[in-house]
Each structure stands twice: as structure tokens, then as C-alpha cells.
Design brief:
This protein is α/β, with parallel strands linked by helices. It contains eight helices and ten strands. Strands 1, 2, 3, 4, 5, 6, 7, 8, 9 and 10 form a ten-stranded mixed β-sheet that branches. It is globular, with a radius of gyration of 17 Å. The two termini are 22 Å apart.
């Protein structure tokens, strides 16, 4: 597995801004946010391409694993103005900006976020929590769903847990911390990270790409999550649409 060469996208050099996008959905075929605090809310999705991690259990490897996927087929440059017009064509208020790792492109996300907010949208960034947001993104109407990846997810925590970035998210007052887990041992590790980095609120999501796997993990985790007084979320997209 290989990550993309460049790991950041800087400011545009002309009057127009663009982003490297994997896909957009939710306008032509309406859908909803499937995870976390807004689970079940109608939502639009802008999935950006590229990531700075190479998690073995990632379910969107087409955004970064160029040993298996062709970036020329899996991504395209999209103008910010076009993305805003696409989102504004729908009455749905919530826009989820995900990846990959969207904050790799945050210099160009600033004008997108500002224009979406001006259009009456609210924004949730789905991020792995390794890159601190710039101050311009920490704004009214914006929330960060921060999902630090555990070693059990197939990644080196020396790369996936970035204390300085987590501190920035915590200080923003606009972040929730959503962990993927499949065992009680994962919950013990989450508790260690939450204590060490003062992460709150904590949300736990069962690992799985099938309804049966999610149900099984839910039953393994539920009592222990409740005992810790954490929040629990399912993966509604998998339950509703299988592994599309």
C-alpha cells in the first residue's frame, strides 16, 4: 500500500480555487449522515481524495492507495464555485466533508467552507485528527468529527495519534471524538487516549462493513460503552445500503 506523493495542497495561485475530489453524493440521490452525533440527519457529502495514513482496514482506499487504484480515475479537480453551486442546489442543510483526509487540502477548504456557510449550510469535517485545523475553519456552523485511528485498525499509532493536533481540536470546542472499535480491548485503549489527551465527548462506532458484522460488534461493545458513559453510534449507511 502506498500513500500519495504530496501530502498537502497549498493556496491557489490564481483567483479560482479547486480541490481534489473523489466523489460527491446526496443531491441526485438523497441520503443522510450515517455516523456520529448527526446520524440519520439528511446530508450531502463531498469526499476529498488523498490521505496521510495507510490504514489496513480503511474502507475508502480508492482515495489514497495507488498500488490498487488509479488516481486519474478515482479523483478529479473540482472548482470550489462548482461544489458550492452543487450543494446549494439542494435544500439539505448539512454538508459532510470527508475523505481520505480532508484537512490535507484545508488551505483551499477555507473558501469552500466560507461560501457554504454563507449559503446557509452547516458543515461537518470527518478527519483522522492528525492535522490541526487552521483558525479560519474553526467557525460557527462547523463541527469536526475527529476519528483517531487505533493500532487495531492497521496503522502505527505513532503516525495516527498526533498530540498537538488533538489539543487544537479539543481547544476548539467544536470537536467530537469518534473511535472505531471491535473489541473491549479497543475500548481500553480509547480510554487511555481520552485520558491522556482530554478528549471529550467520546463516541464509539462498531467496526464492520456488513450488517451482521456491525450487529455482532455492537453486542460485544454495548455494555462496556454504556458503563463508561460514552456515546454509541452505528454505521447507518452499511445497514441501509450494504457495502456500496
Amino acid at each position: 500500500m502506498t500513500a500519495p506523493g504530496p501530502t498537502t495542497v497549498g493556496p491557489a495561485t490564481d483567483a479560482e480555487y479547486w480541490l481534489i475530489v473523489a466523489e460527491c453524493f446526496g443531491v441526485e440521490a438523497p441520503t443522510f449522515q450515517g455516523e456520529g452525533p448527526s446520524c440519520g440527519h439528511p446530508a450531502l457529502f463531498i469526499r476529498l481524495s488523498r490521505c496521510n495514513l495507510t490504514c489496513a482496514k480503511c474502507d475508502t482506499k480508492y482515495t489514497w492507495d495507488w498500488s490498487r487504484f488509479d488516481p486519474r480515475k478515482e479523483s478529479a479537480r473540482r472548482k470550489v464555485t462548482d461544489l458550492v453551486a452543487w450543494a446549494a442546489s439542494s435544500p439539505v442543510e448539512l454538508v459532510v466533508i470527508t475523505g481520505g483526509e480532508p484537512l490535507l487540502q484545508q488551505a483551499r477548504l477555507v473558501p469552500l467552507a466560507q461560501r457554504l456557510l454563507a449559503a446557509g449550510k452547516r458543515i461537518e469535517f470527518e478527519t483522522n485528527g492528525t492535522i490541526a485545523p487552521v483558525p479560519e475553519l474553526v467557525a460557527d456552523g462547523v463541527r469536526f468529527n475527529v476519528s483517531p485511528k487505533l493500532a487495531s485498525f492497521g496503522v502505527d499509532e505513532a503516525k495516527s495519534v498526533e498530540p498537538a493536533a488533538l489539543k487544537t481540536f479539543t481547544a476548539s470546542g467544536r470537536a467530537v471524538f469518534k473511535f472505531v472499535a471491535s473489541s473491549v480491548a479497543d475500548l481500553d485503549r480509547i480510554a487511555e487516549l481520552a485520558d491522556a489527551h482530554q478528549l471529550a465527548p467520546v463516541w464509539v462506532m462498531p467496526e464492520g462493513t456488513t450488517a451482521d458484522a456491525i450487529t455482532e460488534a455492537t453486542r460485544v461493545l454495548a455494555d462496556a460503552v454504556a458503563a463508561r458513559h460514552w456515546y454509541f453510534t452505528t454505521r447507518l449507511h452499511v445497514l441501509a445500503f450494504a457495502d456500496r
